[in-house]
Amino acid sequence: MTETEFKLRGEFVELCNLLKLAGVADSGGHGKTLVAAGQVRVDGVTEHRKTAKIRAGQLVECQDTRIKVLA
C-alpha cells in the first residue's frame, strides 16, 4: 500500500477533493464516483458522504493508497 501525506491549507477539505488533490482520483467527479462505490474508508470506516469534511489527523484509504491528513 502506498502512503502519502496531505497538508491542509484550511480547517478541512471535502473528501472528493482530497482524493483529487492527493492524486488518487483524476477529478473531483471521479472522487465522488469512488466514494459512491464504497471504495473509500475514513479512519477505518467506509465513507459514503462525498463531501465529508476531512480534518487533520484523519486517515483516508482508497485504491491501495493511504492518505494521512496533516495540519
Q: N-to-C terminal Cα separation, in Å?
A: 23 Å
What is the chain-wise order of helices and strands?
EEHHEEEEE
Strand composition percent: 35-45%
Calculate Rg over CA atoms: 10 Å
Q: What name does CATH use for the topology? A: Structural Genomics Hypothetical 15.5 Kd Protein In mrcA-pckA Intergenic Region, Chain A
Question: By helix and strand content, what is the structural category?
Answer: alpha+beta
Number of domains: 1
Spans of at least 5 consecutive residues whose pLDDT stays below 50 are none
**CATH class identity:** Alpha Beta
Task: Find the CATH superfamily.
Answer: RNA-binding S4 domain
Counted beta strands: 7
Number of helices in the DSSP assignment: 2
Q: Could you say which overall geometry the principal axes of the C-alpha atoms support?
A: globular
Any idea what the CATH architecture is?
A: Roll
Strand order of the largest sheet: 1-7-6-3-4
In short:
By secondary structure, this protein is an alpha+beta fold. The protein has helices spanning 15-21, 28-36; strands spanning 2-7, 13-14, 40-42, 45-46, 53-54, 59-62, 65-70. The longest helix is centred in the middle third of the chain and has 9 residues, at 28-36.
SSE map:
Blueprint: E1 2-7, E2 13-14, H1 15-21, H2 28-36, E3 40-42, E4 45-46, E5 53-54, E6 59-62, E7 65-70
Parallel strand pairs: 1-7
Antiparallel strand pairs: 2-5, 3-4, 3-6, 6-7
